[in-house]
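Co-fold these.
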Amino acid sequence: MLDIQFVRDNPELVQEKTKQKGYDVDIAKLLKLDSERRARLTQIEELRRRRNEQAETTKGQKPSEEQLAVGKQLKEELARHEADLQQIDTDYLALLKAVPNMPLDDVPVGLSEKENKVTKKVGEQKTYDFQPKPHWEIAEPRGLIDKERAAKISGSRFAYIKGDLVRLQFAVIQFVLQTLGDEKIIRKLIQENNLKLAVKPFTPVLPPAVLRTEPYAASARLNAEEVTYRLANDDLWLNASAEHTLCTMYWNEILPEEMLPIRYVGYSTSFRREAGTYGKDTEGIVRMHQFDKLEMEVFSTPETGLDEHLLLVAVQEYLVQQLGLPYQFLLKCTFDIGKPNARGIDIECWFPGQNRYIETHTADFITDYQARDLKIRVRRQDGNLDLVHTNDATAFALGRILAAIIENYQTADGRVRVPEVLIPFMGDIREL
RNA sequence: GGAGAGGUGGCCGAGUGGUUGAAGGCGCUGCUCUCGAAAAGCAGUGUGCGGGCAACUGUACCGAGGGUUCGAAUCCCUCCCUCUCCGCCA
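Predicted complex below.
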């Protein structure tokens, strides 16, 4: 959530930017609740002070009739005010949490994804001397993907991934872990982008795939209506990204400044209900209820938050370039970046078999929006406390990137060449 | 699944109704001592929220939420979590 002090100081700005993100929150009402809340709190604290004072003077002895009467009256008054406060508090918090994070100034203003700006196109779209096929037309006949049987067992939007395509997935994983663990590469990316950041490789993490309601809700990532699966008999949700169990990892913790930045690359199977996407991307494996994903997560000081975001974007581009995939770079508009985001970048890879770009990567700069509710803070060298900044970004969403590889590396005879950088991780296999 | 134990400050650990935000110890910080270090001594050392330019101050917090009471870490209720043993299982 946003800092209430910021809202108090900049009500018009907050209202404006909230609108720009397509959210309808009554900021004036929020501020009214805020001041009511504070007024009520002051009254309550005064009553409590008097109660404490009395308890102090009667310690160890039986209170007089008169003191009992005063105490009872205080109690009644308190109960009344506290009931009011509880209601105000509930409304206040609901409204405050409804306010999205403020977009940075370079985020294009727009109320539909059409306003996303393509800021650059990289890599040549290969020309084929045959009609390139979509990935499912290559993979399904060859038994690399079986969605039909998966549908029988699990329903639509599930798949059995099989054979060398599985090997390819594990090769991608190995490639990413090696790349993100390589100090030289991290240093190079930091230098090339003039970032003021520590050279520190990413630590691989296998996080839990499920999490409880309380931390999930605090992460501002729980979306019960459209995205998140819940387990019927437990207070547990299936994560929709490793990000969800990574960003919550330091829930309610104060981190020493020396620990930062913390750079993780998490690997997890991710689950999404995809409610409201019926009929969209029904073929192939680009939109599934279940997919594996490598996700980067960074905790940093507030000063370095933006640079960490830029580093993650640089890492993403590097990874995509290494795979030799043509892509375009999207600066997402206010509507599309998501509620907790201050800025959001997408990378869309070219899918020649479908003759279109498809989103394969997202980088989210969250500032302190998540950390405030998650209560993740940094103890500065001087002893002060600050909220950390969180950043998350896709390394590779395996389903989509396998599909992109299949389509870009397909051959005339319906096979798939293995991208150069993956060959060392594929044994002798050079072609699927 | 069965049985049991337990959740208190950065850590360990006291504390069953009233100077307990919390004994004691450890750790950490500062000072004294020292050429320096260690030891010793002294002092300090949580977080949120409200108020204040600030020093500071009020309030809340002993797993969570309710309740009893003039007053709750302490009594009652509900829930959550952790650990141990047995069973089952990758």
